[in-house]
From TrEMBL:
It comes from the Archaea. Residues 82-138 form the Cupin type-2 domain. The lineage of its organism: Archaea, Methanobacteriati, Methanobacteriota, Stenosarchaea group, Halobacteria. Pfam families: Cupin_2 (PF07883). It comes from Halosimplex litoreum. InterPro entries: Cupin_2, RmlC-like_jellyroll, RmlC_Cupin_sf. This is Cupin domain-containing protein. Residues 1-33 are annotated as: Disordered.
Length: 246
């Protein structure tokens, strides 16, 4: 296969953009242009988001309107170096469905490896985490319990994307005060297992209040397509309206 043929067969996207809108040398999402992982990317009418320090990319496939009971559905792509999520649980169920690659989901201490077409539903209150422990990209859909959970993820990714453009260190993790503020605001929709739930309620009511005053909690501007289109290379250069008309 020639280099030109390979370039035509591979979709390269998701790199951080400089001030002139040009991709820089940051992490890139490389997918088989005709494969299921790229097809999943084309499903979304929303912009592609990225956390350069965490080697992950995501986009909303479905976002319920205000007052609607449907769940948000998020597509994610994890590279081999993407860190595992902290162990956590939700007051509602969460479903993972793998499109391409292999996703490891640990549910209540039991590890499950999901391949293409396989899924698992984690029931409310059950501790879980997930990761990519393979040498390739894994693409999957996740039906999340709430938009507040989505907004907390997008805020963390947005802070990391800003850091990648020279506003800090892009390491995939919010600064300590920002992390505390996010954890306080997303509670109880997402509960980490760093401390017993009763202690967390007290912690978020006290320390969390101070963290919100000094750090950055959930910020809905990170859900805006324009934020990501200015900072992250989009597939085939399509803007949000162009994707919706495809």
């Amino acid at each position: 296969m020639t280099e030109a043929t390979r370039s035509a067969a591979v979709l390269t996207t998701g790199r951080p953009l400089d001030d002139d809108g040009r991709p820089n040398a940051g992490p890139a999402l490389e997918l088989d242009r005709d494969g299921p992982a790229a097809a999943l990317l084309r499903e979304s009418p929303r912009a592609l988001a990225a956390s350069p320090g965490a080697d992950l990319w995501a986009t909303l496939l479905e976002r319920p309107g205000e007052g609607e009971t449907e769940r948000p559905v998020l597509a994610q792509w994890l590279e081999t170096d993407a860190p595992a999520t902290p162990t956590h649980y939700h007051p509602a169920s969460e479903t993972f469905e793998v499109v391409s690659g292999t996703l490891t989901v640990e549910v209540d201490g039991e590890r499950r490896r999901l391949g293409p077409g396989e899924s698992v539903t984690v029931e409310a209150g059950v501790e879980h985490s997930f990761r990519n422990d393979t040498d390739g990209v894994v693409a999957f859909r996740a039906e999340l319990p709430s938009m507040r959970t989505v907004a907390s993820l997008y805020t963390a990714w947005g802070l990391d994307a800003e850091a990648a453009l020279g506003e800090g260190e892009a390491d995939g993790q919010p600064a300590p005060l920002d992390a505390l503020a996010l954890a306080a605001e997303v509670y109880p929709d997402t509960v980490t297992t760093v401390a017993p739930a009763p202690l967390q309620r007290v912690l978020w009511a006290t320390v969390g209040r101070a963290a919100r005053a000094l750090g950055r909690g959930i910020d809905d501007r990170y859900l805006d397509d324009g934020f990501w289109e200015r900072r992250v290379e989009q597939p085939d250069g399509a803007s949000g309206p162009e994707r919706q008309n495809q």
